[in-house]
């Protein structure tokens, strides 16, 4: 099968942290004969926009990235070329695949062998250390692209590749059991609204949603949260959370907040033996928990970083069963600058998915 591949494409580039996003119509496309073994070329259908992309755009993380940079790491598209001499290729031309944050890893080191591929010293990160999905054609890696289940729409699938995998994996390692309580601060946001649904439908957990405003309240309750706490209205958040969970506090808290306070509070409201799942990636925030109470309450503080290939398979397969939906708005690639502005002002509800064709 031969697919015609253009020489140039549309792409959005970060040139420097203080200059505007550069939109190009003549960005080069890596041609099939230029692909190395193990690489594939994916024609993008669409791509989600994640807070990480904004960090890459602003350059405010303690982790260097390439420049100029094509950002983006929630891309769904179709494999249109595979590097010659690729051995044991798990995908074929025409397959619909996802390009996630972890673009590639060595698969041989201790971290990779243990399934902590995201901690591989040779990991390549989409839209950060290698060009990502804010272009029409993306070079990715056959070992790490995620097959998209047939009955999952491309736009819907996009946000599961980062937001979905992240919350799914954190809940998977939360040491909770069906019927346990989980607290989700920021439950009405991009990560939070998916976390409610995975908690309820994949793990059988009971959810306390924390966020603010009537619109988010309605969303959270409609997605399966049993209890709602408006952080702007509560006088004592820790007490309200404990009351909502029968007095003892929740078994787990999944926190993605940008400030350290939310992590500190979790140690206060978690029940003994509870787990604090840290999934946000603010550049500067610190966790300053009481060591005394962390020890006396036997609190587990768990950092959970996106997910490996298996987590991605599981998160997407569970989503394809039809009970978990991403609330997103669809925009063209040219809207990326406005989307970043909206994210900085906190006015983006749910996720934004950019259509690439
Ligand atoms: Zn992300
Ligand atoms: Zn490795």
Automatic annotation (TrEMBL):
A GO-annotated cellular component: cytoplasm
UniProt similarity note: Belongs to the zinc-containing alcohol dehydrogenase family.
Cofactor dependency: Zn(2+)
SMART domains referenced in this protein's UniProt entry, alphabetically: PKS_ER
Matches recorded under Pfam families: ADH_N, ADH_zinc_N
GO molecular function term, any single one: alcohol dehydrogenase (NAD+) activity
Enoyl reductase (ER) domain boundaries: 16-354
InterPro entries recorded: ADH-like_C, ADH-like_N, ER, GroES-like_sf, NAD(P)-bd_dom_sf
CDD domains: CAD3
DNA damage in keyword set: no
Keywords for this protein: Metal-binding, NAD, Oxidoreductase, Zinc
EC number: 1.1.1.1
Keyword Cytoplasm: no
The protein's name in its UniProt record: alcohol dehydrogenase
Source organism superkingdom: Eukaryota
């Amino acid at each position: 099968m031969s697919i015609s591949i253009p020489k140039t494409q549309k792409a959005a580039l970060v040139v420097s942290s203080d200059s505007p996003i550069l939109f190009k119509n003549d960005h080069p496309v890596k041609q099939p004969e230029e692909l190395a073994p193990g690489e594939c070329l994916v024609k993008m259908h669409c791509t989600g926009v994640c807070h990480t992309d904004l960090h890459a755009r602003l350059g405010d993380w303690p982790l260097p990235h390439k420049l100029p940079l094509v950002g983006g790491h929630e891309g769904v598209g179709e494999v249109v070329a595979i590097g010659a001499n690729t051995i044991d290729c798990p995908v074929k031309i025409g397959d619909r695949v996802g390009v996630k944050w972890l673009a590639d890893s060595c698969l041989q080191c201790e971290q990779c062998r243990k399934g902590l591929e995201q901690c591989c010293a040779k990991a390549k990160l989409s839209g950060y250390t290698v060009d990502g999905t804010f272009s029409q054609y993306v070079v990715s890696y056959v070992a790490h692209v995620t097959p998209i289940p047939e009955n999952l729409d491309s736009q819907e699938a996009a946000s599961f590749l980062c937001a979905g995998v992240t919350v799914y994996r954190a809940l998977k390692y939360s040491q909770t059991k069906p019927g346990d309580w989980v607290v989700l601060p920021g439950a009405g946001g991009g990560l939070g609204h998916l976390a409610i649904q995975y908690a309820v439908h994949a793990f059988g957990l009971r959810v306390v949603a924390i966020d603010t405003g009537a619109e988010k309240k309605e969303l959270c309750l409609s997605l399966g949260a049993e209890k709602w706490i408006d952080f702007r209205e509560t006088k004592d958040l820790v007490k309200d959370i404990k009351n909502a969970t029968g007095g003892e506090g929740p078994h787990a808290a999944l926190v993605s907040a940008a400030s350290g306070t939310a992590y500190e509070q979790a140690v206060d409201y978690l029940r003994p033996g509870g787990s604090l799942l840290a999934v946000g990636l603010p550049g500067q925030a610190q966790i300053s928990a009481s060591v005394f109470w962390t020890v006396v309450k036997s609190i587990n503080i768990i950092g959970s970083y996106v997910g490996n290939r298996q987590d991605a398979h599981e998160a997407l397969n569970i989503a394809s069963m039809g009970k978990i939906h991403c609330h997103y708005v669809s925009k063209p690639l040219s809207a990326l600058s406005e989307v970043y502005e909206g994210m900085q002002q906190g006015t983006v509800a749910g996720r934004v998915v950019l259509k690439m064709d």
